[in-house]
Structure formats: structure tokens, C-alpha cells
Specification:
The structure holds three protein chains of three kinds.
Chain A: H1 2-14, E1 20-29, E2 32-38, H2 61-64, E3 70-74, H3 76-87, E4 96-100, E5 120-126, E6 129-134, E7 137-141, H4 143-146, H5 149-152, E8 164-165, H6 180-186, H7 190-202, H8 209-213, H9 238-252, H10 261-265, H11 272-287
Parallel strand pairs in A: 1-3, 3-4, 4-8
Antiparallel strand pairs in A: 1-2, 5-6, 6-7
Helix pairs in contact in A: 7-9
Chain B: E1 4-9, H1 21-28, E2 34-40, H2 46-58, E3 63-68, H3 71-84, E4 92-96, H4 98-102, H5 108-128, E5 136-137, E6 142-146, H6 150-161, E7 165-169, E8 184-185, E9 190-191, H7 192-205, E10 209-212, E11 215-223, E12 226-233, H8 248-252, E13 256-258, E14 267-269, E15 271-272, E16 284-285, H9 291-294, H10 301-305, E17 318-324, E18 326-329, E19 333-335, E20 352-354, H11 355-361, E21 383-390, H12 406-420, E22 425-430, H13 440-449, E23 454-457, E24 460-466, E25 469-476, E26 481-487, E27 489-494, E28 496-498, H14 502-509, E29 536-538, H15 548-566, E30 571-572, E31 578-580, H16 590-594, E32 600-606, E33 612-619, H17 629-633, E34 639-641, H18 646-657
Chain C: H1 2-9, E1 24-29, H2 33-42, E2 51-56, H3 64-72, E3 77-82, H4 93-110, E4 118-122, H5 128-145
Helix pairs in contact in C: 2-5
Classes of the chains: A alpha/beta, B alpha/beta, C alpha/beta.
Chain lengths: ~325, ~650, ~150
Amino acid sequence: MENELRQKAKELLESGQVKQVIGYEDGSTAFKSTPCFASSPEDADRLVWNPTCVNNLAVYLPSAVKQGKVAVAVKPCDGRSVVELIKEHQINRDDVVTMVVPCPGVLNPDALADIDPKTIKNIEWKGDGISVTTDSGEISIPREKAFLDKCLSCTLTDPAVTNIKLGDSPERSPLKDKDAAIAEYEKMSVDERRVFWAKEFTKCIRCYACRQACPACYCKECFVDKNGQVWALKSTDPEANWFFHMTRAMHLAGRCIGCGECERSCPMGIPLTLIGRTLEKDVEEMFGSGAGQDPDALPILGSFDLTKDPDPCPE
Amino acid sequence: MARVGVFVCWCGSNIAKTVDVVKVAEAAGKLPSVAYSTDYKYMCSEPGQNLIKQAIEEHKLDRIVVASCSPRLHEPTFRRCISEAGLNPFMLEMANIREHCSWVHDDKEVASEKALDLIAMSVAKAVKNEALFSQEIPLTKKALVIGGGVAGIQVALDIADAGYKVTLVEKTPSIGGRMAQYDKTFPTLDCAACILTPKMVDAASHPNIEIMTYAEVEKVSGFVGNFEVTIRKKARSVDMKKCTGCGVCYEKCPKKLPSEFDCGLGQRKAIYVPFPQAVPNVPVIDRENCRYFADGGKCGVCAKICPSQAVDYTLEDEMITDKYGAIVAATGFQPWDPTPYTNLGYGRYPDVITSLQFERLFNASGPTEGKLVRPSDHKPPKNVVFISCIGSRDDEHGYPYCSKVCCMYNAKHALLLKEKVHDAQAYVFYMDIRANGKGYEEFVRRTIEKYGAIYLRGRVSRVFQDGEKLIVRGVDTLAGKPVEIEADMVVLAAAMEAQPDAKDLARMLGISTDEYNWFSEAHPKLKPVEVLTAGIYLAGACQYPKDIPDAVAQASGAAAKVVGLFAKESLQSEPTVAEVNEDTCVDCQLCKEVCPYTAIDTKTLTDRAGNPIRTVSCVNEGLCHGCGTCVAACRSSSIQLRGFKDNQILSEIDALAFAE
Amino acid sequence: MSEEQVITKEPETAGAPKEWEPKIIGFLCNWCTYAGADLAGSSRLKYPANMRVVRVPCSGRVDPQFVLKAFERGFDGVLVSGCHPGDCHYAKGNYYARRRHMLLQKFLEHMGIEPERFHFDWISAAEGQKFAEVVEEFTGQVKKAGPFKGVGK
């Protein structure tokens, strides 16, 4: 698969069809790969595809297409971000070549908790889960432990913007219900939730990693960065933090594809995907469609249904 | 540093009775940025206004808050007042301490506290107010009317009579529209041609009207006062200047085709005028069916025979672009095709016809020269069954709406039948008789009582041929029993539906349409001839089924709107419109998506050499109505509504949040 | 800010027991609900005095962020109201408002703000009576929900 990816990338670069290929390459440690920007056929040899390729690379597209046509390696989930970016006019469909990689699931860093990171040599998919090669031999980790939560409930097929399909989609059935995590959360009373989030947002240091990692947060100037105190205080008062996260959530309503990059990048461990998923569930229930499916669909909060939308005074 | 003046009005005792105006004015004087505060019995009176003007000068006030009645009442008054004192009128805010306070509360302490809060909010907003100016928008005093039916003709005549230029564009080769196809009109039974053709001629000879037939609108851009419209004049193949309308060409043309004007009951040639009274009386060549065009130039009879050498096969479509200040859509309707009613045999039995076909059959200029006969055997019919609501009020086969005119033309047809064929009998199957117009109910009664038409309240389940007869099976729900009629002819009152290309034109003009593609008016009650796009108006059945008087009345209404617009020297833009911050706009186009007025477009920013840098949204101030829906949609606050900017509203929230 | 409020709102601590009154902000569209409120006034209908009104051109102008800001600032209740479907002065603004605020209401509940504290409604220029009723009902509802404890703790 990795060879196929490199081969395709090489072809695209050699023929001049694209200016660069965005994929993954080995990072400084074996348990973490890093984004790779390949602009020559030689660069393409560095591309890898393994369970550590976690990042949603769509985040780079709006700026990358300015240099010319781009090919990007996307997992089926990340492909949804590409759909959204096209839908929201941030990239032209013709400026991007999606190379959809077959994805059995990507690494949950917790899976390696019992392994000395210095001893890890290689991580690859094996059987249902992953196999970690260490100095002292090979360790198999089963699927339910190996992969991120979102992967365990994943039922996604090829995104609507697939150009090149690499390998065969792996056969898999979800292990978990998509909403298992929020079902637990929803057991809290309304006031318990208020207290829960007040505590969580107190942790926030306003590093904005969540925003920077998010492919849907492409604004030139975020509302929170506006000069003067237009919307939000830049301080880390719990109330100001609340306003920031709540507003960011509303800005993502109907657009969040649930890649989880916000939560993964949060240094304080704030469970941000919980917000995204709760809101997306509401959007799907109220307006009948979700993010990242159809590049020609109208934006959820930029459209309405005269008769079907929930109404405050239903007839 | 802003210097706000607060003026608290007593409104006699209206406010002062429940609000301690003196104390409130005193407390308001201590609010941040307030340089002066006072109270007065009647702020809106002349002395009250003078008091404001004097204070502006004496205390160098640059923003004014008047705490009095609703701004919906006196905002214009106080705006004028402060602008007379040299301030920009938009430096005014009003605190509504009467309708929203003194009139609805009893407790003086509570009401006074609330009044002070409302003033504090207004002061906070006023501090953020900016001077706003309206712009002068030029105005082209020439109107475009799309559709040359009776509504379009009426619009064109009314505007032209007021002294303005009009272009009347008609898709078919002649103006006249549907009305030209009718024989007589209800309820007066005057002949349609007798009242319509003079109007057609008037339009054609009016010095202010330019008629373009066989032409279609291709592209529309711009906004009120400044539309730029491209019209495609289809190749007529006949030189309009040379043709004398003698008609030799279509007499000699060897190619015969079913006539659209006669609803397929008669024939026309490949070169033709649709009907004898056509305006202009210049034929066109139907190139798709003409032998000359099919056989690579072999036929050419018409060109050879034409005494004035007017036939010109080399003519091509012509594109004409012009500027217009207003556009009126009067594109009408089309009769619905009743084929989906398979049980009624339309298309299967030749004597099951539509009402419009029936109309052509007894029209003196129709295919039978006014002799009412059956299409199958050309014998006059005796028993004729008329069936109402074919495709109307019928969600299953057609549309849920009522087509409004069918009850009346059914009555007319039933009456005229009796006049043409004295021993004939009309049967009318109906759901309800909707005869609500001047003289309409009386007309229906006359048809029933004097002309003996038999009205049966019920639906028809089946029509089938039995020898020469058509057997009509239905039910008379009032008598509560099934009915079977041996008919010679069955006439279906087909619904009116929107033109097949209505949606395309709507998109071009920025008109919204309802679920049936009828054009949507700006307000169902109070703006029935306007649409949401300023400078565009509606006339006739393109909006919804209408009869002739309604269509003509609306046409004159639309014309009055256009004339009213043209009576101005120039247009003033509303100052409270949206503006884009190009530095931060990311071109997600959500604002454009939500704008009800298509006032937002995108534009490409370029560097000094003219190279494109990036695309951003831009607001057409002529189209923007200032609703602010775009502002609430924009995630990066890159679009703002003047007069209601984010920081103005946030200041109000904060002023209240931090109020003591 | 919210701390102060809670302290002053404790009825037991006050000498003369003054009932706690909720602080409510309302965002009303100019053409329907604001006019409806005017009509309530000219009809001299009585309703509780807790709500303060921010006038906006259209319910479509009401950014959900205004509602969030109000809760951040510790308001006990927020009302947003505009023209009924089909009546919007700007034809469609209220339909976008409906999507945003119906969603926001659900979202607020998920995030710990009782649905009783946020009300979205249609009130026309002719519905002075309805305006008075809605304000009365909403004020009662917020009162029942008690002082809002804030989003920060």
C-alpha cells in the first residue's frame, strides 16, 4: 500500500499534474508520523502509511492550493473535511486530488501506555489490530485497544470527492456505537453539565491549538482575535473561556465532521469532541443532514426548510 | 471622547405618571459619556426640539439619546431635529420608556429603574454610533416589460403614457398572449379580440414603446435604476422593415404543421403569422420545420414569391444589451396538460378536449371559423360535459391550488354552447362554484337558470367511447347517486400552471418562486406587485392564476410603481446597509447564501499590477435592505450592518449587564 | 459580577425581604415583535418589568453569540422573537433565525443551561396581547428556574 501511495504520488509530481503531495512521513519517533509536503518525485519516497498517520491533513489545503494543484492523502473521515472545504469555497474541486487511503483505524496513543516509547521500532496494522515491534520483540494490540474511539465506531465509506482510491477498503464492522460516549454524558442533569463544563473550561489556557488543528477553522481572523473587546475577552477567565468554546462550537454547527483533531491537540485534555458530537447529533436530528457528505449541499445554517424545520409554535 | 446628551420626555403624564422622569434624567447625567441630561414635558414639540438643538450647541453634544415614545413613532422627527442642529441624523438613539415602560408597568420605582436601564443601553449604543450617509444612485428612466400578453401590454401602455420609454419583449412572434386566443370574455361576453386588438395596435404605434417579438431575455445584471439586460432577438428570417404583411409567403409555403395558436386543432405553415391580427403582422420562419433549412436551401418558395424581397434566410439571432431602471415580469401561465387523468381519455378520444381548445372551436378566427363541431366527425355536439378542477385542487394529479378562472369560463362555455347550438345541453361537473367577482355570481346563475345548464356537484370517475358517444360516469353528490351521461363532447377545465421556464427567468431576475414556480410577491398583502428585489415588479398570471380584470388591474399597479420610481430625479441608497471588511473576509460565501435580496456578490481583489490576489464578498448597496441576516451568519464578523454593528449591540448588552 | 449577584439575591440576607427578580434581555425584530410590544403599550396591557429590549432590524440579525454573551454576563433569561413564518419584513430572515435559535436552544441545554432560560418565539405586530403573555410567562418561568449560577463555576 505504502508503495502504491509513493508510486501514485511520484506519477502526479513527475507529470506535473500537481505541485505538491501532502501525506505523512516518519516523525522523530516511531510512534508518531508527521505531515509530509512532497514537492518532487524524490520527496515522494518519504511518504508512509501506517497506524500512526493520525493528523487530518485537510487543514493544510486552503493555504496549499495557493501554490498550485495539490494531492492529499486522506482517510475516509478526513475526506469529509475536503468536502466541506469545497462546499465553503475554500478550495476549488479542480485544485485538489484526493488519494483515499484504506484505513482500518489509527493509533490511540493510550494503547502504548505500557510500552517504553524508546524501545518502539515500528508500528503496523496486523490482523484486526496493530503490531508494535520493540527492542524486546513484537507486541500485538487488539483493535478495541489499538485505535482511537472514532475509529471503533467508524462506518465511513469513500468520501464524495474521491479521486484516487488506494488499496481496498478494509472490511470492518463498528465495535462501538458512535454515540456511546455522549450517551454517558447525557445522563448528567442539565445543571451537572453546566458545572462539568465550567470545570473543563477552567483548564483552558487559550492556546487555540483546537482551532489551529481544525480544518473548518480557516478564518483569516478569528472572532476572538478581533481588536478591542468586540466579542470575547482574550483572558482565561472561565466565563471568557466558556464564551470562546461555545461560540466556536456554534461556528462549527453543521460543519464539524468529527475528526477529533481539536481534542487530540488540546494539551489540557478538554473533551472537545463531546461538544462537537452533541451538536452534530442535534443538527442531524433537526435538519436531517450532516457535514461532509455532499460538496454541492447548501450550508446547514445558510439554508432552511420552510415546512420541515422545527418551529417554536408548531401548528 | 463622546459627548452624549440625554433628553427625557414626560409625554405629559403618559411617562411622568409612572416614571420619575426628573430623577431618571438626573441619574442618566451620571452615566459614562453623558455630558448633559435633562427632562421636558413634550420633547417632540417645537420648544422640546429647540431645547435639544440649543443643548447640542451649548454643550457641544455629538450624540443624542431621546428617552420618550417608540422610535417607530418619532425616530424620523428627532433625526430631523438633530440634523437641523448640525449632527448626522444617525447619531440619534431612542429609549422607548413609554410603550415599553410607563404604559405597561404600574410600580413607579420599578418603572423608573427600567427606564434608566433602557437609557443606559441607548447611551452605550450611541457612543458607538457612526455618522452614516446615503449615496445617490443614478436612475435610467426606461422600463423593460417581459411578456406581451394583456398584462404586459397594459403595463407598457401605462408607463409609456406617463412619458417614459418602454421595451416590451415577447417570446412568440406576436404580442397578444393568451387573451388573443379567447373568443368571448366573462361575464360581459364582449369579444376578446375586439377589446384586445386595439390595445395591441396602440402599443405598436406608441412613440414610447419599442416592441421586440420573437425575443427572449438572456441575461440580467445590476440593480434598481441600473439594470443591464441582454435580449436575444431570434432570427425571424423576414426583414421587418421590408415586409408589408401581404401574406403571399404563407399562402404558398408547402409545409403544413399543427398550429400552436389553435391548440393543435388547426394548421399553420412553416412561414407564418400565428393569427390574423398579429402584431407585428410580419411572419417568421419556423426554421426547425422549414424545408429550406432542412434540405440545404432547395425550397425557397417564400423568398421567390415575396414581392418586397423581405424573406432573408441569412438573418441571425441578434443580441441587444440596454440599460433599464425597472423591470416588470408579465410572463403569464400555461394551460396544464391533462394527460395524467388517464380515466378521462384526453389524448385517446378526439372529442375529449381542453377548454382552451373548445375556445378555439367557436372562435370566428379559429380552425372551424367559429362553427362549433366535434373534432372527430365535424358534427355539432348536442350533449357537452364540462369537467371542473382538472389539475386544480387535486394534489394527486396536478396542483393543490385553485386556478380561479375555470368556474367562470365553464359557465361561459355552457352559455355560449347554447347560443351556438340551440338544442344543445351543457352539463357541468364541479367541486364548488367559485364566482367571486363583479357580476360573476349573476353570470353563473344566468347560465343555469336562463340557459338551462345542468350543474352536477361531483367528480367524474370515467369517460369512455361507445360508438359515436362518449359515456361520462360520475357522481352527483347532492342527489347522492351516480350519474351517467351520453355525451358528444367532453371539455376539461385544465389548471393554469407556471410557465415551464418561469424558474429560469426568476433566477435571472432574482425573484423567488413558490413551490409551483409562481413568482413570489414581496408581501402577500401589502406588496402584491413588488418582489423582494427593488425595481422589479409583477403583473398578471406569472404570480398566481388570475383572470383578465385582475391581471390588468395588477398591470396598472405595477406601472404606477414604475412611474413612481421614475418620477424621482435619482435614487438614495439606505445608509443602514451591510459592509464587508475585505481584510478579514475568507470568501466562505455564507453571507451570500443567506441574503434574501441577492445583494451580496463576490469580487476579486487585485494587486497594483492587476493580478488577482483573492476573492471576497461585496455588498451591492442598491440591493441591500439592511436586515443583517448576513451579519449573524458571518463567523469572522467580517460583514457588519451599519447602525446595528456587533459592537453596538454588544455595548447594549454590557451596559445592561453592568447596570446597577 | 455573578458572585455579587448571587449574594445580593439571597433573600434571607436582605433586611426587608425583597423578592429576587430575574434579569432578562430580549432581542426583538423591529417590524413585528418590537411593534407588538409597542401595541401592548398603547393597549396599556400590564406585564412584568424584568425584561429590557434590544431592538434589531430582523430576527435574522440576532447572532447566537448575543445570546451566549448574555449568559456569559450572567443574565437569568434571554428572549429572541421575530415575525411569524411568511411575515418576515425581509422575507426570509426569520427562517435562518429559526434554524440558528432552535439549534442553539438544544445546544444550550446540552451544555448546561436550562431550556427555561432561553425562549425563541414568533410575535407579530398585531399580537400585543401575545407579547404581554409571552413576557409574563417567560418571566415566571425564569423566576422558577431561579438565579442563574453562571457559566464560570
